[in-house]
Design brief:
single chain, 802 residues, mainly alpha, three-stranded mixed β-sheet, two-stranded antiparallel ribbon, 9 strands, elongated
Amino acid sequence: MPPDSGATEKKLISPLTKAGNRFLESLEEKFSGARNEKRRRFILLLLTILLLTLIILPSQHFMSVSYKAGEIATSDIRATQDYLLEDRPLTEKKRSEAEAAAPFVYTYNTSTALEVTARFEKALALTRETADSEQNIDRQALLDPLAKILGVEVTDVDLTALLRIKSERALLAELRRVTNRLFGQKIIADKKGFAADRLHGILLLDSETKRVVDAGDFTGYVDLTEARSQLAAMKFSGGAASRDMQVINELLNRAIRPNLSYDREATDAKKRETREAVRPALYQVKQGEMVVRVGERISAEQAMKLENIFAARSGVNRLFMGIGIAGLTLVLFYFPYRFARKNIRKFNPSNKDLVFLALLTLAGFMILKIALAISTALGSPFPSIDTANYFYLFPFAAAAMLVRIIINSEVALVYCAVCAPLLGIMFNNSLPVVIYALLGGIVGAHGVRHCKDRSTILTAGMKVSVVNFAMALSFQIFSDSLFTVQTLYCLVFAAVGGIVNAFLAAGAIPLVENLFYYTTDIKLLEKANFDSPVLRELMVRAPGTYHHSVLVGNLVESAAEAINANPLLARVAAYYHDIGKTSKPYYFIENVGQMDNRHDRLAPSMSALILISHVKEGVELAKEHRLGQPIVDIIRQSHGTGLITYFYQKAKNLAAQEGKGIDEREFRYPGPKPQTREAGLVLLADHVEAASRTLADPTPARIQGLVQKIINNIFIDGQLDECELTLKNLHEIAKSFNRVLAGIYHQRIEYPEPAFKEKEKGNGGKKHLEGSDHEQAKGLSDQPEADKKSSGDDIKRLGISR
């Protein structure tokens, strides 16, 4: 790779990043109107309520569907309305009895006699046609067709008898007489089985019309054996010789089939019909009736009631339930939000904060819902541990801890107050869950304030464990189950639950930081590293600005601790507040050194434009390196709308000589004014530190007077109107600045010079240790006249008005 390839790549990427940032800013400006903002927030509110209702809804009933016979109830369960419920076991019993009592269905074929006669008529017709058409009959080939027609095996003797028939008409008439007589009674295949079915009850259906046939006298039923005996006793007369008629009688005997047979399909259909005709057995549960009490072992009857009540609440009732939950969620979201916006000073979440809160709420409820579903559906893996004890392990406080780390305490407090009742609803209207989630969330959020490392989160988790332990113990005492084995389990789970919250919150922080570009105190510590690319470039290209920024960081950190602001954010923002000067470092006095002042060759308006541009360039550089929105905001606000006094006065004097006027706005920074206490501190410290360099003799009294003067000028100029710094805060800030600057510009005592110095003096030589810490500070009288003159004007060059 060529040596300058990295620089070339950087040159290519930098414009793209800047273009992307400008595109995002244009979108933000486009949709920043009040009407669009209200519309977006309203849509976000509705979507959150809808999705949250769908998450909560599956468990929205006053009992747990997982209750089975033998389990212990974790809460009292009352009927919320009158119910008319089905007694499923009794209904099933009645239906089974009705099904068992249903009659067996038999089909009766009334045309059996005609069918048998028709078969013989076809057989005789076939034999006659064969005998007429062929002289030499193939007897073997004729047996199979005859067998198919008659439905029985036909022998050669039978064929001979059929061929010898002289009068078919007489034979068929005789067959009709015999079959009508024989099938006039009901023939069955198994008389013994039919007798048993007859005792149970039978139903006769016509095989053709499928209508019920009157059974008549049961003594008229015969089986195949009796029917064949009756046929053997009958005498055939007509149509053939007696010997042939006997053969035909035997053939007819074999062709007899039952005309009464068992119909399995019709019997099954009858059983189903009888079963479905039985109406459900119902019982009534009155409104307010206690179905089961807390701590009571669920009986089979109670489990059945709970299941039936839940089933009865589905459908339309479930729709009304969803509407009710959505309405309650809307009330819990809207009114606390409005109250906090009007009454809590630091409660002002941005659109990004609201999106984060919505997604965090949905994700948190989904995790808890899955845990609830798993614990109730699968039950406890250890039979000795009650399923309800696992609830103490659930991470109720993790979301509140994240809100406190990412946003602030005020938002975290409102978040806990809103989510706790919804969690209680999701956990079967459990008041202990509301208390457990609310207190655990508040303690967890308080424990992670000013979180600067992971150990702080773990410490907060331990605090949550202590509070969870105390609440679990109180719940057990309240429920009069203190001296049980389950109490030990629930106390252990409550203590472990705090650590679970800590680990879950710590693991989610990097994801939230990268997904939403939030800047937490943990990330600020990473940005405070002086080896970061931005600070290293500042140190190399603008060493004076770098040193100035470090001193400003020391000033704001001390002041932030004095007024209970965020010291870490203030210090890190101070390090980066002037990074825009790296593009034109030699146009700023602290980086000039012994070089000529370049502003001497520029018009005052151009000089002011260069000074003003470093704010915009610093913002772009901060966005390019993803320093975080809080640092970007402080860079933009670190100079407020302050006036660049030196160049303004210079331009004003030049314009007065030409008889023209100038616009003061061209010599003011674009702003906005500081919006937070940390931004106000950076603005104050920036001016104070720069002005302190102009002091010829930085005694504590002079430092105090300078600090007070600078703060008063900034206050009078209205630069602190939009931040939350009070007069008491300004007093504490001044004291802190005085203390730090006095430590920086402290006086040194003059140490005795060594022997070689005395010798040099004796020889008339003179040598000073320039730049040594042991050199006494020069007084104002020791400075050259040029330095004396310029020392009073340096403060003007930095934009500070006297």
